[in-house]
Amino acid sequence: MRISHSAKDTYTTCAYSYFLKYMWKLRPTQLRSPLAFGDAIDTGLNHLLETRDLAKAKFEFDIRWNTYREKDVAYSKSDLDEFLVEDDPGNTWLSLLRRGNILLEEFNEQIMPRIKDVVKVQLDQTAQNDMGDELVIKTDFICVWEDGRRILFDNKTSSMKYAEDSVRVSPQLAIYYETLKAEYSLDCAGYIVIPKRINKIKTPRVKIEVIIDNIDPETTAKTLESYDEVLRQIKAANFIQNKQSCISVFGKCDFYNYCHQGDLAGLIEKKEK
């Protein structure tokens, strides 16, 4: 089997939603704005890390974000910074375009000078367990930090402040670090947390948070166990619906209408490339 961190999380949250997403390959026709914007800002950050060329990074972000201009994207009120679009009031797409450029400028100002060397950008590889199952590893970059440590970093855009122990107890970083530490001589892991909200007057426009820590061995052990258990349940075809997860702080599950009303409207089958 082949599984990713997000797929495992989907199964853990609701096994039936995993079935619909990864077995039936259903996807919502409407994209959530955090996914679309996250994809575009990742494109810009990757180019910035690879080239240290801010103008190039902003250009690549603009191109990528422009691909979402005509797509069906579900925006939220928090996506709109009115002061960024005084020339075009209410234009959420344009607001996020300008927000993205500001975030790249601040990353270049606050983070890039602290990176002595970029070892790898946008890791995309797999690792196998003893049963031949493949774990998909996708993380943002590995670098030599200002103090000489080799650190596995994951970039996060967030509207909330991350806890001080968020790296230490992160299942995602635990599995990635455990898998990659020998190959890349890693010393520790970290999050670079980029706030979504832009300061209108204060500088810096956003205050980027860097959290670096060792991974808790207990977190690693529990994470490995959870992967084994999820793989076991999937192989046993256990896809029971968890009705407690139908509505969360992020809204309704993508498959809510189908599960509750048998309505496939708003869903489309993902075509394999």
CATH class: Alpha Beta
How many DSSP H or I helices?
Answer: 8
Q: Give the ordered list of helices and strands.
A: EHHEEHHEHEEEHEEHEEHE
Mean of all residue-level pLDDT scores = 95
Q: Any idea what the radius of gyration is? A: 20 Å
Distance between the termini: 19 Å
- How would a textbook summarize the main sheet? 6 strands, mixed
Structural class: alpha/beta
Number of strands: 12
Percent in strands: 15-25%
Percent of residues in helices comes to: 25-40%
CATH-defined architecture = Alpha-Beta Complex
CATH topology: Lambda Exonuclease, Chain A
Shape: globular
Low-pLDDT segments, ≥5 res: none
Number of domains: 1
Give the topology, please.
Blueprint: E1 2-4, H1 5-13, H2 15-23, E2 26-28, E3 31-32, H3 33-51, H4 54-66, E4 73-74, H5 92-110, E5 115-128, E6 134-145, E7 150-158, H6 171-184, E8 188-195, E9 209-213, H7 217-235, E10 247-248, E11 251-252, H8 256-261, E12 267-269
Parallel strand pairs: 1-6, 3-4, 7-8
Antiparallel strand pairs: 2-12, 5-6, 6-7, 8-9, 10-11
Could you walk me through the main structural features you see in this protein, from its secondary elements to its overall organization?
The chain is of the alpha/beta class. It has a single domain, classed as Lambda Exonuclease, Chain A. It is built from 8 helices and 12 strands. It has helices spanning 5-13, 15-23, 33-51, 54-66, 92-110, 171-184, 217-235, 256-261; strands spanning 2-4, 26-28, 31-32, 73-74, 115-128, 134-145, 150-158, 188-195, 209-213, 247-248, 251-252, 267-269. The strands form 4 sheets. Strands 1, 5, 6, 7, 8 and 9 form a 6-stranded mixed sheet that branches. A hairpin with a 5-residue loop joins strand 5 (115-128) and strand 6. Helix 6 crosses helix 7. The mean pLDDT is 95.
